[in-house]
Specification:
This protein has 332 residues and is of the alpha/beta class. It has helices at 13-19, 21-25, 40-53, 84-89, 108-113, 126-141, 144-151, 181-191, 216-221, 242-247, 265-273, 313-331, and strands at 2-7, 29-34, 74-77, 95-98, 117-120, 173-177, 196-200, 211-212, 225-228, 253-256, 279-282, 302-304. The protein has a 7-stranded parallel beta sheet. The two termini are 14 Å apart. The mean pLDDT is 96.
Length: 332
């Protein structure tokens, strides 16, 4: 079986070469090509276009990357877009491997319509995102990031938006929207800090030690901290909107280390500007990088990070190995 794997700036060809060794040992013929951009920021721009507009939004411009594509039965990608045109060109394609939790960069419906199986690596960076989420919560509630920034400006900062009500995690109620692999890890970590965990997820049954609620509305009404961990789909687009923010208490903190499309940014900014909620910590945005006149940059009650939640060396280098193991089990 012939396999074509696309590397990029974050899962490099060298990582692919090491991570796909088990496939080579089984006799698969593996070809590796590089879809790296000049900078990681350039790669993320294309990735954001794909996440917001689908797999056909970005074209592969270098014809060398698609040379003899009709010979390959398996294509493996992390960020490289696999749209309709490429799928049509790859006439012998049977499997598409996606080295990420979702399949945003693959036209999955079209592929499956043509009998091609799409296999992703759900949970591959779950720990990275979950650990980062806990970091966001602590950074925002305990003013870690803003104090660090002030210290670098030779300011001994003590005047915080929440200076009269700085919370501890223990005893607080954390509401988790989306209780899959990432959400459950976040819950596990915070439960270890003596937080009470409630969750909303129509696809997850009742789990011992956690309280399931039937609606997002009920979740936010009782939560001191709200963290979202859903996939971005048509169904979940702006699932956190003005009405949801209006239901939050003034002391609530909102955390998004998932996808910007899940949240109505304007409604969130309005809630922060009007102090309807205590604060927020945000890792993903509709416009990346943020524009210099972004209203986010004028807010004092928000912690901002540059789409970093899933980006650890361990997550990237281990993903090809994880996918290889799952693929071999699937075809055995």
């Amino acid at each position: 079986m012939k396999i074509l794997a696309f590397g990029d700036n974050l899962i490099t060809p060298d990582m692919l070469n090491n991570g796909l060794l088990s496939l080579k040992k089984k006799g698969f013929e593996v070809t590796i090509r590089d879809w790296s951009h000049k900078t990681v920021e350039d790669l993320q721009k294309d990735n954001l276009l794909i996440e917001q507009n689908g797999a056909n939004a970005v074209k592969i411009k270098d014809p060398k990357l698609l040379k003899d594509i009709e010979k390959y039965e398996v294509i493996i990608t992390q960020f490289t877009p696999i749209g309709k045109k490429l799928i049509d060109q790859a006439k012998n394609l049977k499997y598409i491997g996606v080295l990420r939790g979702g399949t945003e960069n693959v036209d999955q419906k079209y592929a499956e319509k043509k009998g091609i199986k799409v296999l992703n690596t759900a949970g591959r960076n779950a720990r990275a995102v979950a650990e980062f989420t806990v970091g966001l919560i602590l950074s925002e509630t305990r003013n870690i990031a803003r104090t660090n920034a002030a210290m670098h400006q030779d300011v001994w900062l003590k005047d915080f938006p929440n200076k009269d009500s700085i919370p501890e995690i223990g005893g607080k109620t954390v509401g988790i929207i989306g209780f899959g692999h990432i959400g459950q890890l976040v819950g596990k970590f915070l439960k270890g800090m003596d937080a009470n965990i409630v969750y909303y997820d129509p696809y997850v049954k009742n789990l011992e030690g956690y309280k399931k609620v039937s609606t997002i509305e009920k979740l936010v009404e009782q939560s001191d901290i709200v963290s979202i961990h859903m996939r971005a789909t048509e169904e979940t687009h702006h699932i956190i909107n003005k009405d949801i923010f209006n239901l939050m208490n003034k002391g609530t903190y909102f955390i998004n280390s998932a996808r910007s499309a899940l949240v109505d940014e304007k409604a969130m900014i309005d809630a922060l500007q009007d102090n309807k909620i205590a604060g927020a910590a945000i890792d993903t945005f509709d416009e990346e990088p943020l524009l210099s006149d972004s209203p986010f940059l004028k807010l004092k009650n928000v912690t901002l990070t540059s789409h970093l939640a899933g980006s650890t060396a361990d997550a990237f280098k281990n993903t090809p190995k994880i996918w290889s193991e799952r693929f071999l089990k699937y075809i055995s």
